[in-house]
Design brief:
Length: about 110
């Protein structure tokens, strides 16, 4: 690392692996958010009290933020997959171009 210049070396396989790991974690979080949503909505059928109303009110107030989080995570998953695919394609085309060049191209 020299001053503000940072070089990160990564293979297409490593980027795809990390994108897949991030995707799994994001999908798990989205599933957990969906479970919370179902449980809070179902609680009104068996739990009636001031605390139940408070929970429902607080949850509904936070729901737009949770929906934005869900949407943001889904967008990030898609972006990671696209980045990994672009990197993989670029690496493949570089290898193809390299093998197409004559051996004395730099002479």
């Amino acid at each position: 690392m020299n001053g503000n210049n940072i070089t990160i070396a990564a293979s297409p396989e490593k980027i795809l692996q990390k994108a897949t790991e991030a995707k799994v974690l994001c999908e798990r979080l989205i599933e957990n958010l969906n479970t919370i949503d179902k449980r809070v909505n179902a609680s009104s059928y068996f739990w009636e009290s001031e605390s139940a109303r408070f929970l429902g009110t607080a949850y509904r107030a936070d729901k737009p933020d949770l929906e934005a989080l869900r949407a943001g995570l889904s967008k990030q998953i898609k972006s990671l997959e696209e980045i990994a695919l672009m990197y993989h394609k670029a690496e493949a085309s570089t290898k193809a171009a390299h093998t197409a060049l004559p051996g004395n191209v730099l002479e």
